[in-house]
Specification:
The chain has about 450 residues and is mainly alpha-helical. The chain has 21 helices and no strands. Keywords: Membrane, Symport, Transmembrane, Transmembrane helix, Transport.
Length: about 450
C-alpha cells in the first residue's frame, strides 16, 4: 500500500525526494547510492598505483604514510567538483569543453589523455600478467591478451547495469591488501606515527616519491570518468535530468555525490595506506628497497611474509586491474567522443555508438599491442606519469573555471570551502609537477 502511494505521488508529478525520504534505512539502500565515486576511488588503486605505493613503503618505510591523509581531502574535492559538473550540465568534461572553450584546447587535452591512458593500460596489463604468472604459471603475454580482450569485450557487450554491478563487486578485490596486513609484522605505533606525523626527508628521492604519489592519486582520467558517469546515469534513469534544466532534488543529489565521492576516496586511501604499511613492515624492514613494480612487490613478499601474502597481493593486482582498465579505456572513449559530439555511453548498444566503442577498443587494443613491442611498459609508465602530471594541472585549472561558469553550471556554480579546496588541490598538483620537472633536469 505504501509503495503504491509513493509510486502514485511520483507519477502525479510530486518531487522524487518525497519518495526517497520514505525509503527505510538499510545497508542495501546505502550501497545502491554508491556508484561513480566508489568505482573511481577503487580504480585509482590500479596495478601501476600499487607499484608506486609498494615502492614508497619499501624505500621510505612507515614515514611516508602521512601522504595519504594529505591526498584524501585534495582528491575528494576535485572529484566531487568533477561529479557536480557532470550531474548539473548533463555532459562530461570534454563535452563541456567543446561547447564553451576553444577547439585547440580540447584537441590538446584529449590527445594527451589518450596517450597517457593507453600507456597506462599497457603497464597495467603487464603487471596483471606478471601477477597471473606468479599465481598459476604460463606465458605472461597470453594473460596480457586475455585480460585486455576480456576488459574491452565486457564494456562493449555487457548490459550497463550488470556491468556497473560487476565493477562494484570488483572493488572488493582491494580488500586483499587489508588482508595482506595480517601476514606482516606491523609496528602499529610506528605506522600510526608515520600516518599522523609528517617527517620530511630533504632528499631528491623523498620528494620524487611524494610527486609520484600525488600523480598516482590525482589523475586526469578519474576526473573525466566520474563526470561522464554522472552524465551517463541521466540517460538510463527517467527520473534524472541535468540539474541545470530541472532543479528539484538538487540537495539530495549533491548529498549523494558527496557521500559517494567521500566513500570512494576514503576507500582508495585506506587501501593505499595498507599497501604502504605492508611494504614498510616487510620489504623495508628486510632491506628490500629496490621494488619497481607491483608484481615485484608480490614476489618479494614470499620469502618474508610467506606464500599466502604473495598470493593475496597478486590476486589484488589482477582484481584491481580488471577494474582499472575499463575505467582508463572508458574515460578515453568518453573524452574523445564527447569532444566530437558523437553518441556516447555504455548504456547504448554497439551499433548506436560505433565511434564511441571504436575509441574504447582502440585504446585497449593499443595497450595490448604495446606489450608485444620492444617498449618496456613499465618504463613507458614513467613517461605516462609525466604526461598525466603535466595534463592534470591544466585540466584541473579548466575544471575550476568550469565550476564557476554560469553557462555550464547555471545557478549551481560551486563556491565556498569546496571551491577553495579544489584550488588548493590544483596548486598542490602544480607544485608537484614543478618539482618533477626540476628532478628531470637535475
Amino acid at each position: 500500500m505504501t509503495q503504491h502511494r509513493m509510486t502514485s505521488q511520483k507519477q502525479n508529478g510530486r518531487p522524487v525526494d518525497e519518495a526517497a525520504k520514505r525509503q527505510p534505512f538499510s545497508i542495501r539502500n546505502i550501497v545502491k547510492t554508491l556508484g561513480p565515486g566508489l568505482i573511481t576511488g577503487a580504480a585509482d588503486d590500479d596495478p601501476s598505483g600499487i607499484g608506486t605505493y609498494s615502492q614508497a613503503g619499501a624505500q621510505l618505510g612507515y614515514g611516508i604514510g602521512w601522504t595519504m591523509l594529505l591526498t584524501f581531502p585534495l582528491m575528494t574535492a576535485i572529484q566531487e567538483i568533477s561529479a557536480r559538473v557532470g550531474r548539473v550540465s548533463g555532459h562530461g568534461i570534454a563535452g563541456n569543453v567543446c561547447r564553451h572553450y576553444p577547439g585547440w584546447l580540447l584537441v590538446i587535452v584529449v590527445a594527451l589523455l589518450f596517450i597517457a591512458n593507453t600507456v597506462n593500460i599497457a603497464a597495467d596489463l603487464s603487471a596483471m600478467a606478471d601477477a597471473a604468472r606468479l599465481l598459476i604459471g604460463g606465458p605472461a603475454i597470453l594473460y596480457v591478451v586475455l585480460f585486455g580482450v576480456t576488459s574491452v569485450a565486457a564494456q562493449i557487450f555487457m548490459n550497463y547495469r550488470r556491468y556497473v554491478a560487476v565493477l562494484k563487486w570488483l572493488t572488493l578485490s582491494l580488500f586483499a591488501y587489508v588482508a595482506a596486513l595480517a601476514f606482516a609484522k606491523v609496528s602499529w605505533t610506528e605506522a600510526l606515527a608515520g600516518a599522523l606525523l609528517p617527517r620530511i626527508n630533504w632528499s631528491a628521492d623523498y620528494f620524487t616519491t611524494i610527486v609520484a604519489i600525488l600523480g598516482t592519486t590525482i589523475s586526469p582520467y578519474l576526473f573525466f570518468w566520474q563526470a561522464s558517469q554522472e552524465a551517463e546515469e541521466q540517460r538510463i534513469d527517467p527520473d534524472k535530468h541535468p540539474l541545470i534544466k530541472r532543479h528539484y532534488g538538487v540537495r539530495r543529489e549533491f548529498w549523494r555525490i558527496r557521500a559517494d565521492t567521500i566513500t570512494g576516496m576514503a576507500f582508495s586511501n585506506v587501501i593505499a595506506l595498507s599497501i604502504i604499511i605492508t611494504a614498510a613492515a616487510t620489504l623495508h624492514a628486510a632491506g628490500k628497497t629496490d621494488i619497481q613494480t607491483s608484481a615485484q612487490a608480490a614476489e618479494a613478499l614470499r620469502p618474508i611474509a610467506g606464500p599466502f601474502a604473495e598470493v593475496i597481493f597478486a590476486l589484488g593486482i589482477v582484481g584491481t586491474g580488471l577494474l582499472a582498465i575499463p575505467v582508463l579505456a572508458g574515460a578515453t572513449a568518453y573524452a574523445v567522443s564527447e569532444g566530437r559530439r558523437w553518441p556516447v555511453g555504455l548504456t547504448r548498444k554497439p551499433r548506436e555508438a560505433i565511434a564511441f566503442y571504436s575509441v574504447l577498443a582502440l585504446s585497449g587494443g593499443i595497450g595490448v599491442v604495446l606489450n608485444f613491442t620492444p617498449i618496456d611498459p613499465i618504463s613507458a609508465l614513467y613517461w605516462s606519469a609525466v604526461v598525466n602530471g603535466v595534463l592534470a594541472v591544466p585540466v584541473m585549472v579548466l575544471l575550476m573555471f568550469m565550476a564557476r561558469h554560469k553557462e555550464v553550471m547555471g545557478r549551481f556554480v560551486i563556491g565556498g570551502w569546496l571551491y577553495w579546496l579544489g584550488w588548493l588541490s590544483t596548486a598542490a598538483m602544480a607544485l608537484s609537477v614543478i618539482a618533477m620537472g626540476i628532478g628531470l633536469l637535475i
